[in-house]
Amino acid sequence: MILEVKGLEFAYRSTPVIGDITFSVGEGEILAILGRNGAGKSTLLKCLNHVLSPKGGTVSVDGSDTRSMRPAEIARKIGWVPQQGEVTRMKVFDLILLGRKPYFRWEPSPEDFRKVEEAIGLLGIEEIALRYADELSGGEFQLVQIARALAQDPSVVLFDEPTSSLDIRNQHRLMGRLKEIIHGTPRAAVMTMHDINLALRYADKLLLLSGGTVCAAGTGDAITADHIREVYDMDVSLLEAGGYPLVVPV
Predict the structure, then answer these.
(1) Is 45 within 8 Å of 158 (Cβ atoms)?
(2) Which of 42, 98, 203, 204 is the most buried (most CB within 10 A)?
(3) Span 2-40, pLDDT tens digits
């Protein structure tokens, strides 16, 4: 397994937020974390790369415990795509090059430039590579953030609500592209999501959180209408459309 999480816990002061979270993600797999607002999804994501320090449990990447890693080592192993990144007056190529900072010595190397060009090619954003980031649409800037994370050449990429600012067409385009990239490279992805139908369609594994703990986990087939009712407190029917599962509120 690329990413293994065992018994992860976090609390703000004395208030527990997540507890006893255990899961694993292998090479070429996408894990979607689902749950209601306040269920602990973003907190869990931030604990994985030590933006927040877990109060208990372990996070291991490629067999190494992240507690023994320096920040630069974690950055080489775990890429991070925030929900809303800071837009600056910087050219797209240079912004993606920042993803190589964990590898810099004195200045970028030819390998750093090669990794940036590779990431740009993976996302198909060659046409905007020399534009300024503050001139991009929300969807274009999201692709740039993803390219920056991929340029780090991490084993795991974390996404916080990757489709939140996109229309339905671009949601499916982005998720389809991410699925191709993750399935075609030796890395794993973990993403928080609100849209359960997008998760069922594109993720290989799902983790349903309720009150900071795991309510259900597994492939799409393992997620039942009862699980969804328990997490979201609403009745649904699970149907099939176009060969994909579909959650429909009753």
Answers:
(1) yes
(2) 203
(3) 999 999 999 988 888 999 999 999 999 999 999 999 889
Measured in whole angstroms, the distance separating CA 233 from the mean position of its chain's CA atoms is 25
Q: Judge contact between 183 and 28, C-beta under 8 A.
A: yes
Coil/strand/helix, residue 248: strand
pLDDT tens-digit map of 95-124: 999 999 888 878 889 999 999 999 999 999
User: 114 to each of 90, 151, 155, 168, 237, how far by Cα in Å?
Assistant: 19, 9, 18, 33, 48
DSSP secondary structure letters along 196-247: HHHHHHH-SEEEEEETTEEEEEESGGG--HHHHHHHHSS-EEEEEETTEEEE
Q: CB of 70 within 8 A of CB of 76?
A: no
C-alpha dist (Å) from residue 9 to 41, 47, 52 = 12, 9, 11
169 is written with which tokens?
A: 């067409």
- Taken as a whole, the chain contains a residue count of 250
Residue pointed to by tokens 């920056």 = 148
Tokens of 1: 């397994």
Question: Which residues, including other chains, have CB under 8 Å from residue 178's CB and lie 6 or more apart?
Answer: 30, 146, 159, 162, 189, 202
